[in-house]
């Protein structure tokens, strides 16, 4: 979520010409089929049907159908695997779905914390739609997972930033929680033995795919050496081609990575000692604090105004325990 908001704000406030590959496109029309699925978040009788937070997150209403299917599949995999160890989402309705006063930016937040005995801390999903002054919109969908300091395994992250019907930026990773130079066995266990780098290599063989470098040095310092950060751009008018890449290339890779995370990271405690647990607590706290301070705390007020930002960030600080 933080990475995507950072990128979104760059578009809204940049005084430079937007590159052709990242120019906004007209807001996505309603798709022919609206995907409906079970959502664990609490509903609010005061919410109108259009803004009902119980369904809003899982609709992913502004992205293309293949991206919606990808995100719904990942959320479903996580919820199915973790099952009853995940608690219902209990965020306030006006945090689950929020909109700025001008009506040109809206977003959702979906959080499910885990029971105390689970190595999972919580899962966090979101989408943001930003209508741009030049016309069109920038649409973002993300899913992150966070583990407790009782395990040292990596987290999971996917963010899809779609700026035109024929271009998008993908961030897909299992961000490490230990120094990979100091702990080479960590590198071997989670990144070498799992052969995660082959996904990036295969994806970058496609002519439409080029490496993407985040403008944030902090974000680039957080990711793993096997992280997939790419820009995918088809020729103008070839919307079906970008949909094919998402369906036939991105989705299988993302689904395989979430299965690796679920089986290797989310289901097994790594039996860390007291010293390592203290290290992980400190590192996790720093990471979460920086996410609030550097990215969300700066950019959400610009998109949604200070009042909404204070409400959303206040709840997220509680979720992050910072």
TrEMBL record:
What is a single Pfam family found in this protein's UniProt entry? RCC_reductase
Q: Which organism is it from?
A: Coffea arabica
Which InterPro entries does this UniProt record tie to the protein?
A: RCC_reductase
- The protein's name: Red chlorophyll catabolite reductase, chloroplastic isoform X3
| Gene3D superfamilies reported in the protein's UniProt record | 3.40.1500.20
């Amino acid at each position: 979520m933080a990475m995507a908001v950072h990128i979104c704000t760059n578009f809204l406030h940049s005084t430079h010409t937007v590159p052709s590959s990242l120019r906004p496109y007209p807001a996505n029309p309603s798709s022919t089929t609206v995907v409906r699925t079970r959502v664990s978040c609490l509903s609010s009788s005061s919410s109108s049907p259009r803004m009902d937070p119980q369904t809003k997150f899982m609709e992913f209403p502004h992205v293309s159908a293949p991206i919606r299917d990808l995100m719904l599949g990942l959320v479903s995999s996580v919820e199915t695997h973790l099952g009853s160890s995940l608690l219902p989402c209990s965020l306030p309705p006006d945090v689950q779905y929020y909109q700025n006063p001008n009506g040109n930016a809206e977003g959702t937040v979906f959080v499910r914390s885990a029971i105390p005995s689970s190595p999972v801390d919580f899962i966090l999903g979101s989408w943001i739609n930003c209508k741009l002054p030049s016309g069109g919109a920038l649409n973002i969908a993300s899913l992150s997972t966070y583990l407790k300091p009782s395990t040292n395994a990596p987290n999971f992250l996917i963010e899809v930033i779609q700026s035109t019907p024929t271009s998008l930026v993908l961030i897909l990773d299992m961000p490490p929680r230990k120094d990979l130079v100091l702990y080479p066995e960590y590198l071997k266990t989670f990144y070498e033995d799992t052969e995660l780098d082959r996904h990036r290599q295969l994806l970058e063989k496609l002519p439409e795919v080029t490496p993407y470098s985040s403008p944030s040095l902090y974000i680039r310092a957080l990711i793993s050496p096997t992280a997939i950060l790419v820009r995918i751009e088809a020729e103008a008018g070839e919307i079906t081609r970008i949909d094919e890449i998402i369906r036939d290339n991105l989705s299988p890779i993302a689904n395989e990575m979430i299965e690796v995370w679920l089986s290797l990271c989310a289901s097994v405690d790594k039996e860390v000692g007291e010293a390592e647990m203290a290290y992980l607590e400190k590192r996790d706290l720093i990471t979460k604090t920086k996410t609030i301070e550097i990215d969300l705390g700066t950019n959400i007020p610009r998109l949604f105004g200070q009042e909404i930002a204070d409400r959303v960030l206040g709840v997220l600080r509680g979720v992050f325990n910072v």
